[in-house]
Specification:
Shape of chain B: elongated
Oligomer: heterodimer
Order of helices and strands of chain B: HHEHHHEEEEEH
Number of helices of chain B: 6
Strand content of chain A: 25-35%
Number of strands of chain A: 19
Number of strands of chain B: 6
Helix content of chain B: 40-55%
Radius of gyration of chain B: 25 Å
Low-confidence stretches of chain B: 32-41, 180-185
Order of helices and strands of chain A: HEEEEEHHHHHEEEEEEEHEEEEEEE
Strand content of chain B: 15-25%
Strand order of the largest sheet of chain B: 3-4-5-6
Strand order of the largest sheet of chain A: 1-4-5-6
Largest sheet of chain A: 4 strands, antiparallel
Distance between the termini of chain A: 60 Å
Structural class of chain A: alpha+beta
Chain lengths: 419, 185
Amino acid sequence: MKRFILFLTLLALLIPSTVYAQEQNPWGEVFDDNGNLRSDLVDLGVTTEHPDWMSVELPFGQSLNLDADYHRYQTANGNVVVLPSASTLFFMAMNPYESGLANSVGMMGNGYGGMITFLGAVAGNNIDWGRLSTDHPEYKNPDQFWGAVLNGQQDVWTYFSGWGFITTLLQMSWNDTALRTAYLMYLNGAQNCASIPGGCSGVVNPPPPQPKICPEPKVTIQQPTISIQKTAPSNPLVVGQDTENRRGADVQARVTIPPVIFTWYEPIYEDEEVCEPSTTVGGAPVCRTESVFKECREHVEHLPDAVASMQATAALDAASQAWITGKLGQTHYGAYIHQANFILIPGLGSWIGGCDGGGTCTATGQALKVPFADPGTFDLRLNVVTTGTRFMGIPITQPRQLSADGKLQVYVTLPALVP
Amino acid sequence: MKEIPVLKRNIIVAIILAFVIALGIIAIQALPLHNGSQPSVSNQEDTLASKAAAAALEAFFHVDYRYEKDIWLNNVCAVSTPTGCQFISAGADLLWSKFQEARADVTATVTPQEKVAETATEQVWKMLIALSAPLPGSNKIQDTAYVAVIKTDNGWKFDRFLLEPEIKAILVRQTMTVTPVKEGK
């Protein structure tokens, strides 16, 4: 349970929902107005190092060199954003100067406030706060203590009262790559790449900035169509009354995702000979070749946003459950709910999907002969997650979560006395 | 009133006996609670925890370059927590390649020395390790290790080697807790 709460806390830290682009703020080069990573970021990929500050000294002069890994992005102006894994970030916080953490601008949005929240979440339960407050009454709250640790003014190791959390942290960072919570900004990181976490691996030396003469690229996202429904038979009967075939019902889920339209403009230059009259009387004109801007050429890309995962479920609604245990139970003693919930896809069924040449992606899932044993209305739910789109290795749109609902009626035959 | 004659020699013997007994009491009180070769195992949980630490260290320092790394790792992981197994596995590649290059063939005998810290489900033990031969990069065949063990559903398991700053912090804390006792005597 504690790990689950920790996981939720870290996920909450991850969501960049409160970050807005600000041109005066370097973070404006990283996130757009919706809090998504900007399309002009260069994804430098994941870099792994074995720094001294993540080395565990062992007896007999041996050592275990733990991986420090970072996912890094380079902004258009040559700043570098570093996302350390959870364990790497913890060791960076414990060694702020050796790790280069102290040289960063700070975490996304709120400086080191997010870092303090991170430390409180992963290590707060393992600090002997009683002893700390006795030794250091000057810290009025945990945030002041973590702030002193991050500034290198306070040794944190003296006050740890537990040990297992460090290996738990390592496991989390390996199993849950989503736990990359901290965005650290290194101004001019591309030029000074030797001194930033991850070094110069993959860093692009930015060309000199050119005046913006073409429009900004545009992204158009079209609405997908998504549905979940029963396909057969027309009137499904509870399997308990269909003892020979136990037919059940078939459920189909479909999603069609139109391509993301990415429009960008390429400045086109042409070489022209420019001549100036000679400075000497009767002399030949002085000519040179210049690259002259002619036009902005528009490129329209249809980017596929494929289906990454599909999940479908069926749940007997509350009214049907009440009818079975109430009204039906009065006339048919012992009536009970056999199975109210089904995981249809993946589970009883499966799905396949793909994208065509035009960038439209589809996925279809089927669960056949689902053995519904209770009469009533089942609420069908379909959840789909997409991969997001990229163009020339640069993320254009983030993964989307799509969902749809449907209904499925299951029937039962009840005997009745006819006068 | 009845007079009891006491020989002067008996009085001297009695005084000497009293002096020797007093010295003996002082000497017993001054003896350390445990010596370096005996574990300070106070109850069954401590015994189990220290055995888990010893088993893990013996597996960790049982190095035979002729075997694959995974065999060595599996032996360590069998007596470790899942997270402790990953901790060792994370740095195992470099370590094992170093062992193989040096053709290391070593076994270890491990003795629990002292429980230096604990919580309800965790203990930290100082362990004495004796190797059959030195490991590459060192001439020592005897060294100490500080290790954390954790109580799991499957009993006590090795979790990890403590980091240098953690060891220093524990040693400083021990010094601070011992000092007032001496002053009080």
